[in-house]
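Internal tracking record. Fields below are filled automatically when a chain is submitted to the structure queue. Please do not edit lines marked as system-generated. If the sequence contains nonstandard residues, flag them in the REMARKS field before resubmitting.
Queue: standard
Priority: normal
Entity type: single polypeptide chain
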Amino acid sequence: MKYKIVGDSCFDRSAYIDEYVKPQIVPLTIRVDELELRDDERLDPLELIRLIKESKNGPKTAAPSPHDFLKSYEGADNVFVVTLSSNLSGTYSSAMLAKTMKEEGGGGTFVHVFDSKSATSAETLIGLKIRELAERDVEPQEIVEQVEEYIGSMNTLFILESLDTLIKAGRISRLAGLIGNVLSIKPVMGADKEGNIYLVEKARGSNRAFGRLVELIGERAVDMENRVLGISHVNCREKAERLRDEIREKYSFRDVIIVEARGITTVYAGEGGIVVSF
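SYSTEM-GENERATED OUTPUT FOLLOWS
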């Protein structure tokens, strides 16, 4: 089966994912003050971190256009698209409009757009699942059914090193954020089944937040032996590796992989942020 996997730029990757899944990435746009950046291979995440820290305003993001997605649908008989949660971004709507445009243009290409109901490492794992099924020559409609079921069973959790990103994004008040930073409050966040971000718990200090994240994985994961857990990190590789090692020691996931945060994950998780999906 000739197929292609397309993802938006919140589909965080590693060398292994690029080689094995081979996703074609359609980048979002990030705006920091007057500077507009495409979240593509030319973006330097470290420079983006610096720009966000120096800005008094929150960074803004914009979805790719339907035309951007439409171009990515060329060159395969079957196209599987993975996007950010439709409750977090207009990316899903753009991809769906491009699907309609493709179908109206004829040619018989099969296109399905998956709403990840999450972001970052969840998108990565969805792409990995599609790749595994496609390589087994599973029919396209069966791939859709199995992957949609998989999405419905997924969990995403993340911890933030600083509340500054949430303050600038307007998700918490500046006063509450400043008090939280002074008290070293580290939020443990999650994505619900509809793809909305919510506060799971608050922990005092990074170590407690890290430990609680490990515990929550054990409390929420099912069928670990048949599941892969993905970790995305924002410029904190050592922390991600420590988390991977603790998860491997405590639990029995089929595999634990680490991917690097690109621009969109960096915008919302902030430096030191860790996202896990399983």
